[in-house]
Amino acid sequence: MSNINYNQPVASLPQQDYNGHTPQFLPQMQNPVAQVDRNAEDLRWYRWLETGVNAKQLSTAYIFLFFFGVLGVHRFYLRQTGLGLLWLFTGGCLGVGVFVDLFILKGMVRTANIKEWQKQYGGLR
Description:
By secondary structure, the chain is mainly α. It has helices at 32-51, 58-68, 73-77, 81-94, 96-121.
């Protein structure tokens, strides 16, 4: 008969089985309450992005990049004022910076949205 009480929280489950081996599933188990909280935060994050109240849109950032990239308008849009001024006065770092921004713009938009999320909700997104 097993001496494991399955009604106990995950943290109090034994770390070894009968033969002294660590079961394969234990490192992957998580606290189910924390998982529910994480899912609720994810849902709130996606709803916040969909409303578009303060969320930056990737399509808008690409439009600014294509038409006004050498002026740094996409950097100002993402609230990167310092780099926006650099782009403005150097012509997008002579076009090289604009070319690089084509590939990293998605991450810049995500970072801008995370910063805005943290400012509004204090979350650790």
